[in-house]
Amino acid sequence: MNAQPIADNLFTDDNMTALVGARNKQTGHISFPLPLTPNENIEPIALASRGTVWTYTVQRFPPKTPYAGPADPENFKPYIVAYVSLPGQTMVESRLTGIEPEDVEIGMEVELTAIPLDPDAPVDERVMIHAFQPV
Amino acid sequence: MSDVCIVGAGIHPFGRTEGRDGMDQGVYAVKQALADTGIAWEDVEFAFGGSAASGAADTMVSKLGLTGIQFINVSNGCATGGSALNAAASAIKSGEYEIGMAVGFDKHPRGAFNADPSAYGLPNWYGEAGYMLTTQFFGAKIMRYLHENGLSREALGRVSEKAFRNGAKTDHAWRRSEVDLETIMNAPMISDPLNKYMFCSPAEGAVALILASEKKAKELGGPMIRLKTSVMRTRPPGSFEVFAASIDNERGGTATEIAAKAAFEQAGMGPEDIDVAQLQDTESGAEIMHMAENGFCPHGDQEKWLIEGRTEINGALPVNTDGGCLACGEPIGASGLRQVYENVAQLRGTAGERQVPGDPKTAYTQVYGAPGVSAVTILQR
């Protein structure tokens, strides 16, 4: 078994090349992710893989449940959470990766990738989540 | 239509009280409010009340007396207290009742509020991947606001410094000691740009207010504190709220902006007419945003205001004179009513060490919470 996305319907495919957004057929309004229950007015749409950082923060303490990533207070590594503006679509809440918190700038260009929720898990047991990285 | 008056107010100290549950803190506040009004529980014709975590408010009749009173429970998240007050005022304005009560109380466990994704219509992965934290929302929101409006992180520290300075003078506050700006700025970060001195904590406490018609208030003979307006509004399109996996590229207004506008219209006043204000300060960034969203200053002027001390107790517009949520903590059901309690004390001139000088005549409150609700009151003496 290879690394798997954390959920079905999060990415368009198993290679995790794009996120799945929800487009309202009547209004054209796009949001993320797909609603929990199917809705005939909503169709899936592949979201853009490039965008810009609209805002961000840093998770400095280990979250409680339902967080499923590494939460040992001794070894907890803070992670960056951003809203990434995808032009003409929506702003997606996402981890940033490949950059330190002090180097993040609002407006910087980023692109979609996938990262393991627990980087220390064996490769074939990894659960993958979406993230954006500097271009 | 006759005005609705606040004729009595009671509070159970905020913070942590071992061995007393949230409901009993509510009962304590009610008894204090009754004594303050000079009436007995039997005289109260109706009540609206609520808590988020401490049970159904109407069950407090077993502690207060089984008078057969109409007692309606209110559940409106962070606006619970504001909504109870709003409903109580409407009941009197309708002419059906002469005197009634609004009560809010709570007792939360320590630490950040824990939330379940499905309760917000979100998939489980949202929580598992580490997004289900209110602290992240506050950090991300004020990060953008500071950037857009050219404000520095130090402005956040100044809000906290003022909160603890005012809390030190307030009997009902939880945090009773001052903290200097340097200590605040160097504290451990929670969710950038907000650190541990810039967030309020879930806490405990209770507030009860007795409301009466103008006629009844005159009979009671106390100071006439008029509730000029009480407005609650929900969010408009394009607002930025907690637990949003996506937000629109096209940005919109806020629930607070529309609640403030409606409140000023109803009261026939403007922001320049307000002598003292209690604004939601879940974290210090919220006070900064709400200074502008309520119309008290232009976006971007907040840091200048703080440096000049305009929102200090002796400033042009004192804000959060009892230290707000930052110094009092946030028991969800009671928080909005604490703001009104503080304004009643300020307008009566009984606020002691933290009394706003110059005989304030008008006072404003605004509470904000998930999922994008805001409640405003304006009092006048």
Give an overview of the whole structure:
- The complex is a heterodimer of chains A (135) and B (381).
- Chain A is an all-beta fold and 135 residues long.
- Chain A has one domain.
- Helices cover 0% and strands 39% of the residues of chain A.
- Chain A contains no helices and 9 strands.
- In chain A, the strands form 2 sheets. A 5-stranded mixed beta barrel of chain A has the order 5-6-7-9-8. A 3-stranded antiparallel beta sheet of chain A has the order 3-2-4, with no helix packed on it.
- The mean pLDDT of chain A is 95.
- Chain B has 381 residues and is an alpha/beta fold.
- Chain B has one domain: Peroxisomal Thiolase, Chain A, domain 1, CATH 3.40.47.
- Chain B has 13 helices and 12 strands.
- Chain B has a 9-stranded mixed beta sheet with strand order 3-2-4-7-1-8-12-11-10. Chain B has a two-stranded antiparallel sheet with strand order 5-6.
- In chain B, α3 crosses α13 and α6 packs across α10.
- The mean pLDDT of chain B is 96.
- Chains A and B meet through β5, β6 and β7 of A and α4, α5, β5 and β9 of B.
- β7 of chain A pairs antiparallel with β9 of chain B.
